[in-house]
Amino acid sequence: MAQPTPTEASVGRNGGNPDAPRGLVDPLFEEIREGGPTYLRGNIEAYTTRLRETGRTEHAETIEQRDGLVDQDEHLI
User: Fold this and answer.
1) H/E segment holding residue 62
2) Fewer CB atoms inside 10 Å of the end CB: C or N, the chain?
3) By the 8 A CB rule, do 76 and 29 touch?
4) pLDDT by 10s per residue, the chain, length 77
5) Alpha carbons 9 and 46: distance in angstroms, whole number
6) Domain ranges of the chain
7) Distance from C-alpha of 12 to C-alpha of 4, rounded to nearest angstrom
8) DSSP assignment of 26-53
9) This model's pTM is above 0.85
């Protein structure tokens, strides 16, 4: 997945409307701010098992090492 440019990140984070700064916030940025996808919270074991079954062991290990949270670039959140 391509990283958004700083301008795209600003619009996604702030909604692009100075009169209603949270009115049109991109759902991706809400999810990042909340700590990641809801399907992962509380289901790390099942999710990482599935990643391993489908050949994505390195991703499972990263999720386990970070307890399900992935650090984000400061300009994104």
Assistant:
1) helix 57-65
2) N
3) yes
4) 567 777 777 666 666 666 666 666 777 777 777 777 777 778 889 999 999 999 999 989 988 888 876 666 655 54
5) 31
6) 6-65
7) 9
8) -HHHHHHHTTS-TTTTT-HHHHHHHHHH
9) no
- Token pair of 11, please? 């619009």
Dist. CA 31–CA 40, nearest whole Å? 12
**Distances from the Cα of 64 to the Cαs of 4, 27, 53, in angstroms?**
26, 25, 15
Length of the chain, in residues: 77
The single-letter code of the amino acid at 2 is: A
The tokens describing 1, both together, are: 């997945």
Cβ within 8 Å of residue 36, ≥6 positions away: 68, 69, 70
